[in-house]
Design goal:
Nucleotidyltransferase, domain 5, alpha+beta
């Protein structure tokens, strides 16, 4: 009888997927969603030791004008897109190599947060392979589906990230 490793039992690590990512010897963008935030990291690995070089978090969106009354929606599709856009701009600024994506144990659902994040990366100028049909609709990304129409603030935040 085979005993699973502790992190696999806890649902934190898929060791087969991680081994394949490490064998590629390419840098990774790690996407994670917590109960409150979207987090992304640009990670390089040397001899199975990960080194985080760039970090972008949806909490950073407050600096660019995210409204305080919408602090509960920092894990929304709009926040995910803007976090990906911010990550892409940081990568271009530091002239990093094109990475592969690491979603960990998350289920990949078309039109969800993961694909909003990828669309943000692509719009920032990062060359990531992805099917265009998987991206959420522009109305959803711009925040028109939220209780209050968020599209004006969304464009203002995006333009501030672009200018930086």
């Amino acid at each position: 009888m085979k005993i699973l490793k502790k992190r696999r039992i806890q649902g934190k690590t898929d060791y087969v997927r991680r081994l394949n990512l490490l064998k590629s010897e390419l840098p990774r963008i790690v996407f994670r969603k917590t109960n409150r935030y979207i987090t992304s990291q640009y990670v390089t690995s040397e001899e199975t030791q990960d080194r985080v070089e760039i970090t972008a978090n949806s909490k950073m969106l407050f600096k660019y004008g995210w409204p305080k009354e919408l602090s509960g929606s920092l894990k929304s599709i709009s926040a995910s897109y803007l976090t990906g856009f911010l990550m892409g701009k940081k990568m271009l600024k530091e002239k990093k190599e094109t990475p592969i994506l690491d979603f960990g144990m998350y289920r990949v659902l078309w039109g969800g947060r993961i694909f909003a994040f990828i669309k943000g990366l692509k719009d920032a100028g990062i060359n990531v392979k992805c099917d265009e049909e998987a991206f959420p609709k522009d109305e959803t990304i711009h925040g028109k589906n939220l209780r209050k129409d968020f599209s004006d603030k969304f464009m203002a935040i995006k333009s501030k990230i672009e200018k930086e």
